[in-house]
Amino acid sequence: MDSDPKDPNETWARCLLTLEHRVSKQSFGNWFRPTRISTFTHETLVITVPSVISADWLKENYLQIIQEVVFEETQTRPDVTFRVNREVGPRLNPAPSPESAGYKKTEQTMLPLQTENVNQKPDHPPSLNSLYSFDSFVIGEGNQFAHAAAHAVAKSPGKTQFNPLFIFGGVGLGKTHLLQAIGNSAFALKPAQKIVCVPSEKFLSDFIDSLKNKNTVDFRRLYRSADILLIDDIQFLFMRGEHTQTEFFHTFNALHQNGKQIVMTCDSPPEKLEGLEERLLSRFQWGLITPIEPPDLETRIAILRQKAEINGITLPHEVAAFLGNYISSNVRDLEGALVHLMAYCSVHNTELSVQAAKYVVKERGPGFTSELTIESIQKHVANHFDVPLDILISKSRKQDIAQARHIAMYLTKRLTKFPLKMIGLKFGNRDHSTVVHAINSVKKKQSHDRSFRISVDRLLENIGRQYQNRD
Q1: Among 65-69, 204-208, 364-368, the least confident range
Q2: Domains plus CATH for the chain?
Q3: DSSP annotation string for 343-368
């Protein structure tokens, strides 16, 4: 083609006709039919898609074939990018087909580098991911109080009793979602506010750079002029030395004294943070410290249904119930399983069914078991050793009780994806080093005591079989 296409839509339509013969019928309906063209020149091809998952999936799985077909039709090799516009066409396959698309992980760092979001306001704070909102957060028994507190803070930052707001819990339970939702909601209500949202590593690296470049004044101006300071995974801030804590202490004081809002997320309550100075612990306790617990079964099913619906996916209830039963660790694992399932069904051109979900669960490993929680394992071990549950997780150091407790911790680590700190919390508020010691002691005894190893392996097998066989 000697010049840019006069009718980009017509050219793209010809490309689609070719693509329809290169991919499966299901994949074409899911991923290509809803596309539109925004720009089509020698240098640039911008394909508009209805969702982030569509952009991500096309980029990762079909970019090469798109480039090949475009060259065949136009004899040009433009740079291909994807733009998200949820108002475009049917969001996925408009046919009443359960074999639908996958769900995109909602971590900001996982978004495709070449994806543009035309719904994002030009002046939207770049540190905030607009995909995270209170509307898209599924409320359950384990997170409803944290959600309510976050919502109150977003509506009246610095003017509630929840300052600072400290949200803690295990990996993938929604802490980052709530943190970002606070920023997005507060910005929507009052765009003039200065909102600073950073992971703790960014605060640390900015501080180190300011020391190297001798411009700490600029660093302090950036963070201490914020109306709302949102810091994610703050536990990493206290592993890097006294100077970082001192700087954060003074930043905290400056903001709090000026009535500015501070929100932090963490993987454990502040009193369990190793190396945290007493003066910072005291200030964290000025406001509200609230946990997020792993979602219960009903919440897990609701999360799956909502995540599917957001992306135009028809997820049969029995499939959602099956995945919700088998994946109890965290929201991120639920989303990952949904991505895996949709990709499997799309690639293999198979129906979205419980049978396909069983295959995905098996592929994803032993951590995905039906209702397999820390409490479930504790009860099983307590019954096996004829030890009352409250004694099992108590401070008792009797040899038989301590050994049963160590085995329970070891099995929890083997059978679930809970972080060490969360396991420690569930075993009488012990720190993660205690859990590591327990796991290592079981491994050591297994290495030289054959009967002990057989006993633990049998217990592991029995628990795994008991839950994996539940449909």
Answers
A1: 364-368
A2: 8-117 (3.30.300.180), 144-292 (3.40.50.300), 374-468 (1.10.1750.10)
A3: HHHHHHT----HHHHHHHHHHH-TT-
